[in-house]
Amino acid sequence: MTDTSIGTRTLGTGDHALEVSTLGLGCMGMSEFYGTRDEDAAVATIHRALDLGVTFLDTADMYGPFTNEQLVGRAIAGRRDEVQLATKFGNERNPDGSWVRINGTPDYVRSACDASLQRLGVDHLDLYYQHRVDKTVPIEETVGAMAELVAAGKVRHLGLSEAGAETIRRAHATHPVTALQSEYSLFTRELEDDVLPVLRELGIGLVPYSPLGRGLLTGAVTRETLEDGDSRAAGRFPRFEGEAFDANLALVEQVKSLAADKGVTPGQLALAWVLAQGDDVAPIPGTKRVKYLEENAAATDVRLDDADLARLQQAVPRDAVVGDRYADMSSVNA
């Protein structure tokens, strides 16, 4: 039985609106990037998510690569009607994991969608994102091909990930965009300048990934806790390196103090902050363990008043975080 007490939120407007659970589940780390994998534990986590009403599941073909979609498909078998299923295309990889390119060509859009449907074992996707913008292909051509998938019944709603304001406008003019997925948290707020106003103007929802700062804002991540093979320890994310890491951990200590005062965990406080940014915001914190899933879901019960928000703003000023989000920022905000 599903307990939907965490509620729902609506991404997009009108005929292109999609109702999702207030909090979603990012499934990437179940297959790659964040240390060891345990598929049985991952499936159990997804099942527990559905039972808690966390029904907005996020994957992508590149995770694994390809194996994360298969894992999610296995987990939702027999429960498809409970799920708002989102996946992504565009970061093209070979089966051995090697990088090919960012690919937004219409033929690739069509073939990638068919492959994702097969791996997931479903006949349609609720939300299909372009994972990164292909700067060599006009966005109108990519979104035009995505619109064909909607017309064919393979996809219900369209999304973009890490797109810039002008790209979003052009895409939305080609076919209504339901959601933008971008990194957004107490530690990452740049989209507030140009992107978020455009989303609000056009009626597009925001799906923040890494709303816990890739785990930093839980207070549980240190140099000692990062496992071998964890991409956060491999130079991909400058915020986890050297003096930047030390400076960012000092900010986390401030969050931990405020969380203790409020009687919640640091992660719950950080998620509550994201949730407080608008009813059109549905974050997708990732986890591969039931324990942390349950902790995250409980964040939907945390209410922040103006004083709480002001204290968080003072503790973590918008520009206080040290280091870029990625070592290579060329494909974000494109």
Automatic annotation (TrEMBL):
Keywords, sorted A to Z: Oxidoreductase
Enzyme class: oxidoreductase
UniProt xrefs under InterPro entries: Aldo-Keto_reductase (IPR050791), NAD(P)_OxRdtase_dom_sf (IPR036812), NADP_OxRdtase_dom (IPR023210)
Origin superkingdom: Bacteria
E.C. numbers: 1.1.1.-
GO MF annotation terms: oxidoreductase activity
Domain NADP-dependent oxidoreductase, residue spans: 23-315
Keyword Oxidoreductase carried by entry: yes
PANTHER family given in the database record: AFLATOXIN B1 ALDEHYDE REDUCTASE (PTHR43625), ALDO-KETO REDUCTASE YAKC [NADP(+)] (PTHR43625:SF40)
Protein name, per record: Aldo/keto reductase
Biological source species: Nocardioides aestuarii
Taxonomy of the source species: Bacteria, Bacillati, Actinomycetota, Actinomycetes, Propionibacteriales
